Amino acid sequence: MLEPRDGIPPVVADEATLAEVIAAFADGTGPVAVDAERASGYRYGQRAYLVQLRREGAGTALIDPIACPDLSGLGAALSDTEWVLHAATQDLPCLREIGTVPTRLFDTELAGRLAGFPRVGLGAMVEGVLGYVLEKGHSAVDWSTRPLPDPWLRYAALDVELLVDLRDALEKELDRQGKLEWAHQEFEAIVSAPPAAPRKDPWRRTSGMHKVRRRRQMAVVRELWNARDRIAQRRDVSPGKVLSDTAIVEAALAMPPNVHALAGLNGFGHRMGKRQLEQWQAAVDRARALPDSSLPQPGQPVTGPPPPRAWADKDPAAAARLSAARAAVSALAEQLNMPQENLIAPDTVRRVCWEPPVSPSAASVAEALAGYGARPWQIEQVTPVLVAALKATAG
């Protein structure tokens, strides 16, 4: 499919046209297909730069959320409507920022996982389920570009063109497999999940951080990461375009004493001006001057069980439980034709095996699973195999 059935609609970029679109979609029927395009790798943050919708009776709409930053009226008009998204958890945060949050949804990617499809990208799903090949290739472009080129808009419109058709076909397949109620529980869990809390110490996720062992070097990473983040936010560009993670780690390992030494490191080459070099060196100097008491600790506080590779030494009995549980869950997932991580979160299995109920029974294991956020269908499926695994490895 190279063209949307109704052609490429004009981009909605003013409040009057937006009001017309909201009225049209409010009068439409059936589920509404929703998608959003971000400018990851180009701009700071994960804001939406284009929102696409399609609904029976309303057609397709392409909305510019930069020109129309408050879409709460659209969200309100569709509040009782089922939204169809592909990989919903990727788009919901940026949709929430502009006032559009579903109360019901159908996630076609997650549905594909539960139904056992080996490839669950939108293009693969549309081709495998509906027999259409979508034109792809603009997913990684800079969606903050204005005006947006027609080929990009065509791609964006096609992303919602067949989403409701895909939803209907997947619903039938899930129902045939006896998994439709499971899917509904998963979709409800996505809708009811609170917004993710800001990550603690995000600088620790710098690529290559595993090479940085000493606390003062870690302080250099922290200072450079925070300086980069402030600049990126001010300039509204991706942090990686300001300074690469590789450069941050290079500086942390080298601990350059001055600008001249810094300029000789990878990532701080000849294209970087003196003023830029000085601001990075200032960050390094701040880390060098910190008292020992202010240096970061070499690792984040661990909540829950340690990494599984350490279990054999720390608690051999727990390691045996985990091995048996993993094997049982893997076999069940294969039997149910779905990925293990969709059957039950691996972290949940680890926690139950690290601190199992004193007397592993169906009731006590089910209670533990529920406490870790497992859905009722997961508890029903997984409890028997976990109980068997725990009992088989009991000392």
UniProtKB/TrEMBL annotation:
PROSITE patterns: HRDC
Example GO molecular function: 3'-5' exonuclease activity
KW Transcription (keyword) present: no
Positions of the HRDC domain: 214-294
One GO term of the biological process aspect: nucleobase-containing compound metabolic process
SUPFAM superfamilies: HRDC-like, Ribonuclease H-like
Any Pfam family the entry gives: HRDC
Record-listed E.C. numbers: 3.1.13.5
Start and end residues of each stretch annotated as Disordered: 291-310
Keywords: Hydrolase
Superkingdom classification of source: Bacteria
Name by which UniProt lists this protein: Ribonuclease D
